[in-house]
């Protein structure tokens, strides 16, 4: 059996979670949360980062912090997870869907400017498969039109754009540490505040609208209600799990990249034979091996490949169902033809199994199976 995904848990994760239960606070912002911040600083150079209960709530916090108002427009790819869009729709802002690039399925930066109106407030980018978008171009557009860039880096922890770490490429970066991501805490995430002027308000919004964090810092002796907010901080038990994962940062990264590189080397021949396409990692990017995508010629071939891999005990998954043509998108009045590349790729992209504890032999078994199935026609 080769599952699609499996978290890598060792004695270290178990030890730290048990230690947190015995010696730490069970609620948020305890010893392990602080250790996570130190580690994120050491590994990725992050200065102002706050753990959240999920990547979803990190995006929701960003949407609260930029004070979106009903009717504001947000430019966003349709080829993403519902959370990217729900986060600002909860503020009653309106998604303006932008099509994606054919080579790496990230937002097509050449199509952004035509979508800007006097109601546009922000661009929410998605670093799909851990590969960063072209931020020099996107930030230049944002600057010229006075827009805020929110980087959904849920999949891109440890990836780089021109030597700059993902999560730091917009005004806010949002990470996910969900069980399916590279570094896990079960359910969890983080918001990176690249403009420090947002930090004080972010701390308040994350703590149900109170200044409780100031009490922890010893700045005030009692906390009180200051703003709107919610319960966005995760239990220290989960931070303990994440801390163990971050201590294994390089090991997990190397293992994932071994699988990713094996797939890339072994499947190149099928691309040469015209049986599939591989996504392209741009020159400017250093990726984290989050996901391996293949693009099949048709939906039918994809369905057959998934079924036949399944019979061999290998789980491959389709990717996003485009948001603009999903049931909610249609209900809101969007039309499938608005984002033709997204629509086409939504039907053709397949993600192969990929997790840190997968061996090179497992990866070779998958590529052998893919070759056999696709060549048989
Ligand atoms: C692009 C993207 N954004 C946001 C999320 C939401 O993250 P979480 O599951 O931690 O809420 C995910 C998770 O699947 C994602 O892939």
What does this structure look like?
The chain has 377 residues and is α/β, with parallel strands linked by helices. The chain has two domains: 238 residues, Type I PLP-dependent aspartate aminotransferase-like (Major domain) (Aspartate Aminotransferase, domain 2), CATH 3.40.640.10; 127 residues, Aspartate Aminotransferase, domain 1 (Alpha-Beta Complex). The chain is built from 13 helices and 14 strands. The strands form three sheets. It has a seven-stranded mixed beta sheet, with helices on both faces. A four-stranded antiparallel beta sheet has the order 10-12-14-13, with helices on one face. The protein has a three-stranded antiparallel beta sheet with strand order 7-6-11, with no helix packed on it. It starts with 10 loop residues before the first helix and ends with a helix. The structure holds pyridoxal-5'-phosphate. The site of pyridoxal-5'-phosphate has 14 residues, from helix 3 and helix 4.
